[in-house]
Amino acid sequence: MSVSSKPTLGGSALPPGQxxxxxxxxxxxxxAAWLVVAGLVVVVGYVGWLSLGWPLIHDAPIMxxxxxxxxxxxVPYRDLFDMNFPGVYLLHLAVLRTLGAGDVxxxxxxxxxxxxxxxTIAALAAPWGRLAVIGGALFFAAYHLGGGAWQVGQRDFLLxxxxxxxxLGVVRxxxxxxxxxxxxAAWRWAxxxxxxxxxxxxRSCSCGSCSWLPAIPRTPAGWPRSCSRRR
Length: 231
Known about the structure:
mainly alpha, 2 domains, two-stranded antiparallel ribbon, 7 helices, 57% helix, 2% strand, disordered N terminus
């Protein structure tokens, strides 16, 4: 007794034309998505190159000054009046101690932090395939660089790797607990997906770069087999 491998609809085999049309649409959508990713590569590369000359402006010089004062012995919230949390000062102090206080040092730190964040997004997007991995990482990089020099080193941007690593840890923990090899189903448990009230940083890191991943077209299972070869 043989079992037909042809696609079915309600127990009946699909007409060959309808089957091929569906695969053709999937192929077109998949290729179009890769074209978008290729465009993001160009955008990120071009804007990233232009950003090498961005100066130290906006909030970053203020955080640099506070970190410099802390390094000289000042006590935050007593000698220095600012509303930010200590982690921001520690990051700026680490940059001052290791890379220096100039524009180039801040660009190196920002691009390194952007790379770390993009790699974390790629790890979180892995269940959806290579298109989601590359597209998610490039989407976030383009979004950050598109904000211009004033967006460099903003506190919500500095929070992103920590939020994404937390989401990745929760997703993998749920996947291990449920015994599932795919973490796509566990994504709904990630921070920012379970709660309807999220911060701006979690929205920019999670929703802006990862929550659209289930909509990404995936390679049809029959590729590279052609429709014309089906019997």
